[in-house]
Design brief:
Blueprint (H helix, E strand, L loop, with lengths): L14 E3 L20 H6 L8 H11 L4 E9 L2 H13 L4 E6 L6 H15 L3 E7 L8 H9 L3 E5 L17 E4 L3 E5 L24 E5 L2 H15 L10 E3 L10 E8 L5 H14 L3 E6 L9 H9 L3 E7 L5 H8 L2 H6 L3 E5 L7 E5 L3 E5 L13 E7 L1 H15 L2 E4 L1 H5 L3 H13 L4
Parallel strand pairs: 3-4, 4-5, 11-12, 12-13
Antiparallel strand pairs: 1-9, 2-8, 2-10, 3-6, 6-7, 7-8, 10-16, 11-14, 13-17, 14-15, 15-16
């Protein structure tokens, strides 16, 4: 009698993700996934943003992986965010990559510079990329000092030799440490975010949102950084492939995250489509916080349609701004939205600089993209989309708390603006593509 034949277990081939940017440059988005059409697919999903098909739709739009198993910590206070960033740099063993639109030579910038220099002394490879226009107030001596302390420094699109590329700016805010921990969001590096500096000339400490991400998504943040570094003429550096879980393996605990990044010629239409899909798939509420709200006209019907089908659509926008002209450009869309049931609140406590949204207690986004022309045409941006109830809950709680420092705008009140105010809003709206 023969025993039962033992089957040899099938070997699972290791899977790796190559460090290639997604979506690829000059990709043509399929017609049904474009911003004006993707809402039909999203609205048809029976489970809304929590439907398994919505995750598939996101991957189709952006042609990027959704990374499971990430720990997310949100910061709404600049001093806490900067302390966490310095702590992560202090733990670095191999590599620190910092990308900022504005990096100031002030107390916040100096503290970060000291942490970076300490890492460089330990033998960590440290690279800093700052936008030449955004950081134009930072003197050359600061950049030279960083280089003398062993830090690689590049400026994105300085006036010369990039005269014809001046409209194209690097608006990202990224810190990636050892491809293990990353930070991104709306915070630049400056004292206006730190509570220790007290009131600013615009009111109090700026209100912003930043995120600490620990897990496989940090690897992709390093890949995104390398795009800007290469563009700025930095010395090439290698990023090893990311090892992926075997097929069929259970998803690790933690948030599932999609890196939604863009640069001139890449990713802008995908970002608009993800936003359109999120609005269309929302069933209960869609809450948006945005610093510079001067949206393209095709975005307004999406918000209005959601409110029309009973979704609680709320916009938290600046009542105080460091760029008043953009704020007035946004005013040109208020009446259209208010008439259709969208609720608008203006934050009055200080400058509102955050860029985030949360939908139905499950889907959320934090990043650098504003609802203006520049973010969807000219800027390099970086956002993180989270499919996680815990992250969404934290953002909803913060949104509700922010409303205590905001004033709701009603249609009756809005219609009673002065003629000068109305004329100024209309003019600013016409100029919005130039802002």
């Amino acid at each position: 009698m023969f025993g039962r034949e033992r089957k040899t277990p099938r070997r699972r081939t290791p899977r790796f993700l190559r460090p290639v940017l997604r979506p690829m440059a000059f990709r043509v988005l399929p017609r049904d996934l474009r911003p004006r059409r993707v809402g039909r697919l999203a609205a048809a999903l029976p489970g809304g943003v929590g439907d398994p098909g919505f995750e598939v739709l996101l991957r189709r739009i952006d042609a990027s992986p959704i990374h499971p198993g990430n720990a997310v910590q949100l910061y709404f206070d600049g001093s806490q965010a900067f302390a966490a960033m310095c702590a992560a740099i202090g733990d670095a063993r191999e590599e620190v990559l910092l990308e900022a639109y504005i990096l100031k030579d002030d107390a916040a910038g100096r503290a970060l510079a000291d942490a970076l220099a300490s890492a460089a002394r330990r033998g960590v490879a440290v690279r800093v990329l700052a936008d030449a226009f955004g950081s134009s107030a930072t003197h050359r001596s600061f950049w030279r000092e960083l280089e003398e302390r062993g830090i690689g420094v590049r400026l994105y699109h300085p006036l010369f030799p990039f005269l014809w590329y001046q409209p194209y700016r690097d608006h990202r805010k990224i810190l990636a440490v050892d491809r293990r921990v990353a930070f991104t969001g709306g915070m630049n590096i400056g004292e206006e975010y730190g509570s220790s500096v007290g009131p600013t000339r615009h009111g109090g400490t700026w209100r912003d949102t930043h995120a600490r991400l620990e897990g496989p998504v940090a690897w992709e943040m390093a890949v995104v950084f390398r795009e800007g570094w290469d563009r700025a003429g930095g010395a090439p550096f290698a990023i090893p492939p990311l090892a992926l879980p075997p097929d069929g393996a259970p998803a690790p605990p933690g948030a599932s995250l999609l890196v939604l990044d863009s640069a001139p010629g890449r990713g802008h239409e995908e970002t608009a489509s993800v936003l359109a899909a999120a609005i269309a798939a929302s069933r209960e509420r869609f809450w948006l916080t945005n610093a510079y709200f001067a949206p393209r006209r095709d975005a307004l019907p999406l918000l209005a349609a959601a409110a029309g089908r009973g979704v609680d659509v709320r916009l938290l926008l600046p009542g105080v701004s460091d760029v008043p002209l953009v704020r007035h450009a946004g005013h040109g869309s208020y009446r259209h939205l208010l008439k259709r049931g969208v609720r608008i609140f203006e934050y009055r406590a200080s400058v509102l600089h955050a860029k985030s949204f949360v939908a139905d207690g499950y889907l959320s986004m934090v990043g650098s993209t504003n609802m203006d022309f520049r973010s969807f045409h000219f800027n390099a941006e970086c956002n993180v989309v989270a499919l996680d109830a815990g992250v969404a809950k934290t953002l909803e709680e913060r949104f509700t708390a922010d409303l205590a420092d905001a004033a709701e705008i009603t249609l009756a009140e809005w219609d009673h603006r002065t003629r000068a105010h109305k004329a100024g809003d209309a003019l600013a709206r016409m100029l919005s593509p130039l802002l």
